[in-house]
């Protein structure tokens, strides 16, 4: 897809996806070098009037946890009623320290914290739709109510929650960008390559934080 022009104005929102303790170094489901996204996000966030933070928020014993399936292992693929499911270590359990947003984030002007993955039997990578692809989180309606027409996405992990969120945003009619140096991937057996290809096919554009700042200064 050709390069589009991004102009940050009142119709643009920054989405900060799942920058939580369990996804950072030493967390239960650590994304390699996941902490490196935090200073980048902190630098770009003041450029945006609208900032939305998402938070994985699973009940204990969530069915996406390998511990909920005796005999299964972490990262094993199983079939759920809504389709294939990767089984994860227990992570981001509601009310736990691991589920908390990183203290290093400085986003005092964030307007919304959206919690996802709250349903016991359905996983949720996307900030827009649960993994059954029909249960809405309500984010699209909120963005539309604010007059948002374009979103810029950052956070963890590129190949799962960031990618699913970006694809759903684009397919919902929002112009969508991902800041590549403000994201990090888990990259399980080529998942990063597949995710980037899927995002490009959906019409998602990519840029760096330096390119973003240059556009704002020009």
TrEMBL record:
Pathway: Cofactor biosynthesis; nicotinate biosynthesis; nicotinate from nicotinamide: step 1/1. Residues 12-207 form the Isochorismatase-like domain. InterPro entries: Isochorismatase-like_dom (IPR000868), Isochorismatase-like_sf (IPR036380), Isochorismatase_Nicotinamidase (IPR052347). GO terms for molecular function: nicotinamidase activity. This is nicotinamidase. Its EC number is 3.5.1.19. Pfam families: Isochorismatase. The lineage of its organism: Bacteria, Pseudomonadati, Pseudomonadota, Gammaproteobacteria, Enterobacterales. Keywords: Hydrolase, Metal-binding, Pyridine nucleotide biosynthesis. PANTHER family: LD05707P, PYRAZINAMIDASE/NICOTINAMIDASE. Belongs to the isochorismatase family.
């Amino acid at each position: 897809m050709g390069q589009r022009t991004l102009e940050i104005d009142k119709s643009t929102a920054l989405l900060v996806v799942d920058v939580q303790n369990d996804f950072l170094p030493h967390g239960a489901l650590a994304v390699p070098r996941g902490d490196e996204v935090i200073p980048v996000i902190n630098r770009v966030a003041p450029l945006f009037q609208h900032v939305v933070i998402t938070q994985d928020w699973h009940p204990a014993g969530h069915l996406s946890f390998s511990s909920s399936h005796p005999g299964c292992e972490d990262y094993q693929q199983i079939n759920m009623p809504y389709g294939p499911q990767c089984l994860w270590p227990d992570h981001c359990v509601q009310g736990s320290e691991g589920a908390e947003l990183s203290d290093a984030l400085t986003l005092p002007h964030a307007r919304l914290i959206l919690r996802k993955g709250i349903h016991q039997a359905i996983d949720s990578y996307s900030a827009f739709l649960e993994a059954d692809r029909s249960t809405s989180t309500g984010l699209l309606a909120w963005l539309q109510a604010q007059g948002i027409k374009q979103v810029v996405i950052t956070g963890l992990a590129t190949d799962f929650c960031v990618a699913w969120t970006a694809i759903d945003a684009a397919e919902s009619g929002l112009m969508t960008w991902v800041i590549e140096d403000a994201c990090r991937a888990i990259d399980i057996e080529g998942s990063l390559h597949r995710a980037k290809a899927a995002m490009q096919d959906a019409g998602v554009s990519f840029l760096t934080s330096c390119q973003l700042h240059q556009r704002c200064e020009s």
